[in-house]
Amino acid sequence: xxxxxxKSKKGALWQVACLCSTAQWHTLDNLSDILQECWLKKPSVxxxxxxxxxxxxxxxxxxxxxxxxxxxxxxxxxKSRFFIFAGSHHLLxxxxxxxxxxxxxxxxxxxxxLLCIQLAVEAIGIxxxxxxxxxxxxxxxxxxxxLQSQLSLKESVxxxxxxxxxxxxxxxxxxxxxxxxxxxxxxxxxxxxxxxPPTTANPRGYWESWSxxxxxTRFLERMGSSWHDINPFSYGWxxxxxxxxxxxxxxxxxxxxxxxPTHPIVKDPRFCILLPGLAPWLESNLINFxxxxxxxxxxxxxxxLELREKIxxxxxxxxxxRYVFSSELASRGYPRFFFAFEQLLNNSPAIxxxxxxxxxxxxxxxxxxxxxxxxxxxxxxxxxxxxxxxxGRAISRLVAEKKLASCLYELLIRGNYHSAENQRxxxxxxxxxxxxx
Length: 437
What we know:
4 strands, 2 domains, 5% strand, 22 helices
C-alpha cells in the first residue's frame, strides 16, 4: 500500500484490519510508525483510529510508543475507544482459551476481536463494503491457527529453549550458503548438534541440521513438491493444516538440535521457498529474526546444478528465479543482507563485518581471523566469465527468463535493494516471472 492509499479515509483502516485478521503484528508495528508520521503532517480521526488499533492490537507483544501530541489531541469518539479496548480484551481471551485447548471458544473470541475493530471503524462513519467484509471473513478463518503457532513459539522462548535471536541463511542451492554458515559458526554463532556430514561434493561440510533437512524434505513431499520443483505452491498453502503441523514439528526440532542457544544460525536452501510458511513466527515479535543471503550469478548456479544434480539448464534458471524471488519477498521488513557470492570469496572479512552488524553481534563475541580463514576461494569452480557463452546457448530459448534473472541479480548485489524504487522494480520483475509459469 502506497502513501496515497494510507492517507485515504478508508485505506489505513482497511490495511490495519487486514493485518489484525492475519496476526501480522510485526508488519503492523512497522505500519504504525508510518501512520504516525502521516498524522503529524495531516491529523485525521481515521489515521488516529488506525494508529490506536495497531497500538492496542496485541496485548502480549506491545506495540510502538504513541506520539504524545496524538494522545493530547485525540478526536476519537468514546464509542471507538471502547471497541478498541474491547477488541484487545477478546484477543487476549482467544489466546487464553487456546492455552486451555478450547479451540471453539478461542475462535469465538477471535471473531469478536475482529468485530470490535469493525464497530470501532463504523463509530466514525466508515463501513466495509461487501467485498472488503468477505476478505476479512476469509482471513479470520486462519487467525486462530496463526495465534496457536505464535503461542507455541512463545512457550519455547519463555522456557529458554529458543534464543531471542535467530538468523536464517537463505540462498539458492550451489550459492555459497554452506561456506557462509561455516564462517559464521566458526565465528562463534550457534550451529545445530546434528550437523550433516561432509561429502565429496561439499568436503568442508554443509553446516545444516540433518533433522531440519529431513523434516523440510518430507513436508515438500506431502505438498506434492520437491526442492527442484519450478512451480510455486498452491495459493494459501501457508495456512494449510499440514503447514501448521510442519511449524509445530519444526519448533520441536529446533528445540532439540540447538541446545542452550544464544544466536542459532539456521540453514537449509529449502527455506527460500518455505519461509512464507513461517509467517506467524516472523510476525510474532517474539524473536529477532534476521536473514543473510549470498546471491550467486544465475549462470554459475545453473551450470553447477547441471554438473552435480543433472538438472537441465532450462530448469536450473527457473529454479534460481523461484528461490530468489521467494526469499526476497518473504524477508522484507526484517534485518537482512544480500551480497554477491564472489564477495564472500574475495573479501570475507568485509562480509563477516557486515553480517555481524546485521545480526547485532558484539566484536568480543567473534573470532574473526579463524572464521574468515575458513573461506576457501577454490570453492568458486563455475565462474560466469568462463561459462557465460556455454550456458547462454543452453537456455537460448528462455530469453525472458535470462533477462529477468540478470536484472534481479544486478538489483540485489548493488546493495540498495531496500529502496522503495528498487522494491517496486523487483515486484514488477516478479509479476513478469509469474506470467511465464
